[in-house]
Amino acid sequence: MFAFDYTTIIISVVLLLIALLTSLINPFFRKVRIAEYGVPTSATESEETIDEEEPAEEADVAIAESIVSDEQQPNLPPITIILTPHDNAQELAKNLPLYLNQDYPTDFQVIVVAPQNDHETGDVLKRFAANPHLYSTFIPESSRYMSKKKLAITLGVKAAKYDWVIMADINCYPTNDNWLQAIARNCKENKELVVGYTRYEEETPAYRQFERHYIARYIMREYQRNKAYACPFNALAFRKATFLREEGFRGNLKYIRGEYDFMVNKYAKGSNLAFENSPEGTLIEETPTEKVWLSTHLFYMENRQHLQRTPQHRLLPYIDQTALHGNYLLQCVALAGSLLLGMWTIAVAAGLSLILTIILRLVMAKKALRRFDIDIPAWKIIPYELAIAWKHLGYKLKYHRADKYDFISHKL
């Protein structure tokens, strides 16, 4: 029967308040800024898009405004892009032209550093050898005792003509030919690092898109608060002079993966990092295989033990997941117990708090995902949120069972 004594009312109000408050302890509730980017329109393009019936005076004004916009375009530095394929000849053939054909007003070069015995990659590079932006070099076969990826990046940096260098993965491709401009506009005097946003292509399974963005929101918030910890993205610009002065990857050379994480963790200080997440400045990563997806998680669990500020970084995700699971557990226990005991007022309150939680979390998540052009059906969001912690536990168990020598190049 329905009862309205003080205890019942207090329990009911507490259930509703907890539902409201825990819904706000949520990465989707915390605002993440999206950079705005507009490529100036040239006078020629303005003339072509002017309506034929538009008065001549208005057309002249439109062209004049366009020219002013071009004059106000910031000076973009010459820049070097480093790609380090390893048995990725197919991806190189597909994506290399997208980097070589960037619309960039200043000079740029694309350096491809590949293993010396990778003949398929060599054949691909020969096809593009005439491109003036391309330069290629190779890793010696005798290199040992350090990550091949880190060695390739180091060789690429030393070969770079320009101070600003971007390292990117060849299994990622720019969304358009203005990607380099979007990244480079952040290369200012007071910056040492520029991180470019990356997301999976649309064909990627929905859960993987969800998890990647869910985790990335914590990183993006840290960037905005000048507390950079790591880099789960696949585009990172940095200064060659700083890299050489600080001896590159010294301190983590033996770890096979984690180049982006180690770079940001080591070099980011205060406000010297800029983050570019406009649609134009986004890289699209090809759908990862099951092996790549699993190894990404396992290598991160190894690498984070060697990163600074790991406890501070992990605190907020733990709070969010505790609030998420604790709220649902409380609601389910209250609902089941009140139904068994015939406490219908509390049962209704528990049911309403559960509905309130679901609605709030769905609305927040859909809105946040939509801003980043990630389309995930609403009915999948709640199960995916709950799955984050349990899948993480599964990866952790696999990591503890793994041979730790698999994560380093020193096989002692």
UniProtKB/TrEMBL annotation:
Domain Glycosyltransferase 2-like: 82-241
Membrane-traversing stretches: 6-25, 342-363
Keywords tagged on the record: Membrane, Transferase, Transmembrane, Transmembrane helix
Any one Gene Ontology molecular-function term assigned to this protein's record: transferase activity
InterPro entries (UniProt xref): Glyco_trans_2-like (IPR001173), Glycosyltransf_2 (IPR050834), Nucleotide-diphossugar_trans (IPR029044)
UniProt-listed Gene3D superfamilies: Spore Coat Polysaccharide Biosynthesis Protein SpsA, Chain A (3.90.550.10)
Pfam families: Glycos_transf_2 (PF00535)
Entries under PANTHER family matching the protein: GLYCOSYLTRANSFERASE (PTHR43685), GLYCOSYLTRANSFERASE 2-LIKE DOMAIN-CONTAINING PROTEIN (PTHR43685:SF2)
The protein, known as: Glycosyl transferase family 21
Native species: Prevotella scopos JCM 17725
